[in-house]
């Protein structure tokens, strides 16, 4: 077994706190002080993505820490996975605005994002690293 140092997750948790605070406070001020026109609507989607990404990052980290049998993941991979969750919820909200979202479409979007992440993880695992 190689002596691969465990990555430091302090930066990930700090980023999660910053993203969640900016997202949730921004959403609070946006929803309490603006009208739903085009500009604030796009700002809502952006702030929602920040808020959900920051909120889910600690849970993604805990899930990987508990159930991962392989080597620990780098914080960038965990951030990307949290961002996928934020993107998924934002897409679902965007589709629900004009009543286009159905259960089958939500499942299909989720399966598609999981497949993209799976392919990215395969690509990361197969990359050649000198000295290993």
Brief synopsis:
The chain has 132 residues and is an all-alpha fold. The protein has four helices and no strands.
Describe it.
The protein is mainly α. The chain has one domain (10-126). It has four helices and no strands.
Q: How many strands appear in the DSSP assignment?
A: 0
How large is the radius of gyration? 18 Å
Question: On the 0-100 scale, what is the average pLDDT?
Answer: 90
First and last CA, distance: 11 Å
- Percent strand equals under 5%
N-to-C order of helices and strands: HHHH
Low-confidence stretches: none
| Alpha plus pi helix count | 4
Q: Structural class of the secondary elements?
A: mainly alpha
Total separate domains: 1
* Amount of helix: over 70%
SSE blueprint and pairings:
Blueprint: H1 10-33, H2 38-67, H3 75-97, H4 103-126
Keywords:
about 75% helix; mainly alpha; single chain; globular; about 130 residues
């Amino acid at each position: 077994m190689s002596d691969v140092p465990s990555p430091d997750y302090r930066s990930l948790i700090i980023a999660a706190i910053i993203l969640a605070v900016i997202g949730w406070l921004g959403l609070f001020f946006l929803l309490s002080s603006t009208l739903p026109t085009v500009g604030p609507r796009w700002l809502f989607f952006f702030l929602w993505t920040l808020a959900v990404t920051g909120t889910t990052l600690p849970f993604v980290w805990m899930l990987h820490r508990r159930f991962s049998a392989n080597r620990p993941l780098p914080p960038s991979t965990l951030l990307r996975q949290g961002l996928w969750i934020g993107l998924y919820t934002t897409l679902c909200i965007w589709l629900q605005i004009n009543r286009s979202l159905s259960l089958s479409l939500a499942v299909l979007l989720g399966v598609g994002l999981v497949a993209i992440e799976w392919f990215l993880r395969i690509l990361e695992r197969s990359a050649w690293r000198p000295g290993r």
